[in-house]
Design goal:
It is built from 6 helices and no strands. The protein is mostly helical and 129 residues long. It has one domain.
Length: 129
């Protein structure tokens, strides 16, 4: 069993890449479909809502696509997502406590941690050692 897991280990990064990328591509695309509404809902200027949508959408694309390109693409994708998650943490979720069902930060913290993993590891996550 360990031999099978060891052989699969270099591809385990795809679980994180696809999950993180899909979440942010989806939410970024949603924001693009109604940027004015997003800006109003988040109580931010239109340009900031546009930047958030870009960071989410392209962050997700870069985290997934970075596996096929250069290390910096993966790292930038993770960075874009990390910045958005820090904003979400401090501007929206921190005062609601931990529990996501109460508007808390547990999901934001998880997404931030996964994004930071890609910032720190880049494409070295798919290489066997």
């Amino acid at each position: 069993m360990k031999n099978v897991l060891d052989k699969l280990a270099p591809n385990a990064h795809w679980l994180l890449r696809l999950a993180l990328g899909a979440v942010f591509i989806y939410h970024g695309a949603q924001k693009f479909s109604n940027l004015a509404g997003t800006a109003d809902m988040l109580h931010m200027p239109f340009i900031v809502a546009t930047l958030v949508a870009c960071a989410e959408f392209f962050g997700g694309v870069f985290v997934i696509g970075g596996a096929f390109t250069k290390d910096i693409v993966t790292r930038l994708g993770g960075l874009f997502i990390s910045i958005v998650m820090l904003g979400a943490f401090f501007l929206v979720h921190i005062n609601n406590g931990f529990e996501v069902g109460k508007g808390g930060f547990e999901f934001v913290m998880t997404l931030f941690a996964i994004a930071m993993y890609f910032v720190l590891k880049g494409n070295s996550v798919g290489k066997s050692h």
